Structures are given as structure tokens and as C-alpha cells.
Amino acid sequence: MNAVVETRHSKGVTILDVSGDVVLGDGTEALRETVRGLVTGGIRRVVVNLAGVQHMDSSGIGELLATRTALLNRGGQMKLLRPSRRVVEVLQITKIYNTFDIFEDEAAALGSFRQIAADEASAG
Description:
Distance between the termini: 47 Å
CATH architecture: 2-Layer Sandwich
Strand content: 25-35%
CATH class: Alpha Beta
Order of helices and strands: EEHEHEHEH
Number of strands: 5
């Protein structure tokens, strides 16, 4: 099943609900096009909800890295939410698991952005 990406917003954060297979081809294209539109539109805080992803190959991992890099280059951030055991295994095998902030709870993921903003305000 090709990946489907639905976008919603909560507390100033854009949440991408991804479902299906994020694999080479149409699966990664859906994620790439969605993120490109968000970044171009000025979105800087993104949570990628992977709860509905059944399979992710190295191309999918590459898209997650590209998304993270695009956001970081524009002063933004990305968090992962509820990756399946299979996705976590791929992240661990590729040795990039620790590259991402990963959450099992949506409220905690959203709250992490507020904490970062508070830390930046107190430092400045």
C-alpha cells in the first residue's frame, strides 16, 4: 500500500499522519511533496506520526533525514511519533535512531517544542 500523508495542526505544530508503506517510489514521493510544500510555506515545527506505517525501506529513512535537514536548515525541527517496532529496527540498523527525537505520546512531542521555545527565550 502506497504511503498516504495527512496534515493537521495542533498548538502551533504541524503533524503529518503517515500511513502505508514508505518505500522507494510513490511512498517516498508523498512524504517528499508534503514536506516540500510545508517548508516552502514557512512551517518550521513538524511531528511525523509513523503509527500507521507498516513498512519503511532505506528510501523512506532517507526522506526522514532529508525532511529533518530541510527543517534544520531553516531554523526548524522535526520529531517522530509512534514509529512501529519494524521502523525502529530499520532506524537502529542504519545507526540513525539517535538522530531523531522520538516520542510515543503526542502531547509529549508537542510539549517538547514549547520547552525548546522557553529555553531559547530564557537564553536570549
